[in-house]
Structure formats: structure tokens, C-alpha cells
Specification:
Largest sheet of chain A: 2 strands, antiparallel
Number of domains of chain B: 2
CATH architecture of chain A: Orthogonal Bundle
Largest interface: A-B, 27 and 24 residues
Number of helices of chain B: 13
CATH architecture of the largest domain in chain B: 3-Layer(aba) Sandwich
Structural class of chain B: alpha+beta
CATH superfamily of chain A: MetI-like
Distance between the termini of chain B: 35 Å
Radius of gyration of chain B: 20 Å
Shape of chain A: globular
Strand content of chain B: 5-15%
Shape of chain B: flat
Distance between the termini of chain A: 65 Å
CATH superfamily of the largest domain in chain B: Periplasmic binding protein-like II
Number of strands of chain A: 2
Strand content of chain A: under 5%
Number of domains of chain A: 1
Number of strands of chain B: 5
Order of helices and strands of chain B: HEHHHHHHEHEEHHEHHH
Oligomer: heterodimer
Amino acid sequence: MMMNKTRPSFRLPRAWVPYLLLSPFLALFSIFGLFPLLFSLWMAFQSWEPTAGLEAMRFTGLENFIFVLGDAWFWKALGNTLWLAVFSGLPQHLVALPLAVFINRAFGRHGHSVAAAYFLPYITSTVAIAMMFTSLLSTDYGLINAMLKWAFGMEAINWLWQPQTLKPAVAMVVFWRYVGFNLVLYLAALQTIPRELYQAAKLDGAGSWSCFRYITLPALKPMMLFGITLSIIGGMQLFEEPFILTNGRGGPDQAAMTVAIYVYRLAFDFSDFGAANAISWLLFALLATMTWLTNRAFKDRKP
Amino acid sequence: MPFAFEQARNREGAVVAIPADIGPGSMFYRADVLERAGLGLKDLSESWEAYVQAGVQIKTRTGAYLLAHARYLKDIVLFSSTPAGQSMYFDAQGRPSISSPLFQRAFELAQKVRRLGLDAIVDTWRNDWSEHLRRGKLATELSGAWMASQMAKSVAPNTHGLWRAAQLPGGSFGGWGGSYYAIPRRSDPARKALAWSLIQHLTLSRELQLSAFKNQDAFPALLSAQDDPFFDEPVDFLGGQRARQLWREAARRIPARPLHRQNKFAEEVVNGELDNVLIYGKSIPKALADAQALLVHRATR
């Protein structure tokens, strides 16, 4: 007590402590998260060529948004992105879910070590994966064409240089990369379903399909919502795989130019930061809407 | 190097960067493949049309492709045939000039190459491109002089002695890359002065320019560095050919090409239309007209 009185006290009021402890995060978030976000919103309403310096920025109102909505390349990129999101996203869940059920049944609690094998691509660098697939997909030296020739006597396919084969090739790489992630999600959810439910159902004479349909699927619903939401967001923001597979251009006839690649090219290749930021915010609005719709679709309907 | 210096002018005509090294264009060709095809260098280099024609014989007799991608042929034909001092995609008034006969010819050559199956349809630097080079499946590679040492050191060291260099077909000259030094306008004046003396040292010292050439294969942009005896020495990888003399001559004849603000965009528009021609068989006049229209529309931005 005496000590406290003599020493000049430099103690913070209790109420401030949480804010002090939060401040490192808040500082980092404002610098690297909030500021770029707001700056991007600001730029979406400006016309700016970055090489001319910051003072060359000019307010143009909604001009960027109007330009983008009338830009054929934007719509093409959006179409490509939706195509890729559907054809890489849907199979991920259609394969991951049954696979998770199978692994859970066959391996039980040890399923995780099996799932780890499927999970490996997810933690591998995208660049390494895309580089590997460019080699696998090579027309004259690729393993994939060699196998097709060996198995079916097929002519070599130029996967990455034809619009009609490039899209499926990109979708395949994305599927291969993320199927393991969804598998782990579903496996984790499966292991939380109480066994008693299945035992009770069996006593009531339910077959394995009925068990799956009336116990497993409903119990997996929250995880499906989570997984599908992540797939939609990831699919709509797809960038690295098609970017590397097509050498940063988006492929022949821009067949694999996703919205994210177009944003990148608009900003850094065509020096049009205004339009690039406008698209980013349009994409954000679209994603928010899609996520909201997914949420609604999965909501328990109450009578 | 006059062309490299001219290239560094901004719209107001002021020089804003100093060239350090350049990449004089060269046609690398496999002497052994040509011999098997029963062709001489002259059969390839007379004109771009002859070059494509020779590709047919190369393909039928040896199975090798003429070049990596039809698009690259379009690029260099366009670059080298556009009059000096003029941008490739825009005229002096800044209006798009895509529908000129130059584009028609470049597109026709690319289309012919694709129709005859003469291009390997691979991108430079990809794995299958270097595999083609290693196996002698690409009869020619149109690139900067630095490509010789790239091939020697990393891309295809096993083809040592099989390649030769020549000037591009049809008396064409072009540049593949190069480096410049510039100083940001707003930097601290004291540092600016230091940076400027460093730049002068790096770009004007004959000795440094030469050592960069000998050690890093950076072809000197400094004219006075180009009369060193090193230019007359044989290049091992090219079968002892004195190729540097060739590149020195090419360097002096590369046309300067001002870059328009929308150059990159114009390039993508043109490449997109070339895809339409090569992949979907779109007619060339229609493709060029569409490219022109898109650029005119975009020019208002």
C-alpha cells in the first residue's frame, strides 16, 4: 500500500485494457485491411493512370461502373468465372460427400489419415500445382495425352490452347485441389453424428439408404452450407490456377479469363485502376448476394 | 544505341530513362534440321513468305515444327514492318491503325502457319517449349541475342553446337527486351545526384558495359562498347559462329517504336482477334475491323 502511494502510478484504467490488447490487431488491420479497402472504393470513382502520379487522379462519379457494365470483356469474364465455379465447385461436393461417408464407414475414427492424402493438394503451393499440370497437360509430352493414347488410341489434345478444352482443364485442376478440403469438412461433420441415431434407425428397420437420406444428410446440412459458401466465394475469386496455366493472359480467346484475372489485367496491364476497382466492388456485391441466397436456400423452412 | 534512346522519350519528347542493355533480334535455327530438310539458310531468310514455305519442307522431311507459336510470327512481322518512328497500333494522331495492310499480312502469315501445322502451339519458357528445343523439334526460334546463352546454360544445353544465328527473314530487325535506368521525379535531390552518377557509370562506362555483356549476356546499349574485339570472338554454343557481329549489325538497324498509352490493351485486342482467326476461322478483314472498332470505342476512356 505504501509503495503504491510513493511510486507515480502509470496504471491504465481497467476499461482501457481490452482496447490496448486489441490495438496491435486494430493497427495492422487498419493499415493492411481497412485502408486498402477504402482506397479501392475511392479509386472506383476516379479515373487514374498510376504512372502519372497520385495527383493525376480525377473524380468521375459512376463513369467506371457504367463503362464496366457495358464492357463485353467484363461479361465474358463473368461468364467464364460462373462456368468454372459451377464445373469445378459442384463436382467437389458431389464427390467429397459420398467419399466422406465411405471413408467414415470403412475406416471409422482412423478416417483422418486417409483424408490427409486427399487434403495434401490443398496445402501445396498453387504455383507448384499449376506448373505440374502444365506439364501433365502438355500436348506432345504430357502424361495425360500419353495415357489417353495408350488407353483409347486418342489423338493428342492441345488442352491449354483450345477454348473448349482449356475450361475443363482448369476446372479439373481446381477440383483436384479443393476436393480434399471439402472431404475433411464432411468427415469432421460425420463424426459428430451420434451413433445411437443409426442404431435406433436400424432397429426400426431402416436400410442404409434411408439412414443416409434421413440422418446423415440432414445432419450434414450446416457443413454443406459452410462448404458450398466457401466454394462459391473461392470459385468467384478464382485467380492463380487459370493465371498460371495460361501464362497470365487468360488463354486462347480469353476462355479462362476469370473476373479476378480481368481485374488484374485492367489494373496492371492496361493501367485502368478505376475500372479494375469498380469491377472488384461489383464482384463483392455479387458475392454478397450469392452468399445470402445460399444461406436462404439452406435455412430450415418452418411451417 | 539510337533506337533504344529514342524509345525512352515521353509524350513531350523528353528522354526519361537511360538504356543499359538491349536485345537485338535474331533468328536461331538448327543447322542439322535444315540440312536434313535439304534446305539452306537462304531458303528461310529471303522473306517471311519464304520462311513459312520452308517450314512446310522442314515439317514433311524432319517432323520438326517451324516455330513455337504463330502469334510470335505475327508479332515480329508487325514490329519489323511498321515504319520507323511509328507505333504499331496507333497512328501519329493517336488513332488506332489496326486495319492497315501490314496487319493483314501479319495475320495471313500466322494463319498460314497454323493451317499448315507449322507451329508447335507452345508458349516460350514453358516446359514443353524447352523440351521441344532439347529434342530438336523446333527448327527456328525468333528471339533476342541473349537467347543463345539462355539455351546454352539452362534451356537446352544438350543442343550445344547445333544452333546457328542469322538475321531475321526478309531483312527484318526487331528488339526483344532491354533494360533502362530511371530516377523517380520526387526523390530526395541529394540521392538523385548519387543515382544519376551511378546511372552514368553503369551506362557510359565502356568497361562496365562490356563486363555486363561477358558475364550477364546483357548486350551493351553503349555504342562505343560495341567495337571491342570480344564481338569478333566465336560463340561456342553456336558452333563457333561469330554471331556477335551479326547482332551488332542488327542492333543498329532496329526501328524505334514509340509506345502508346494503350499499347498493352491494343496488343490484347489484336491477340484476341488473332485467336478468333486461328481457332474459329474468322475472316481476317472482319477480325481486323472488329479490333479497330473495339480500340476506337476504348480510346474515349
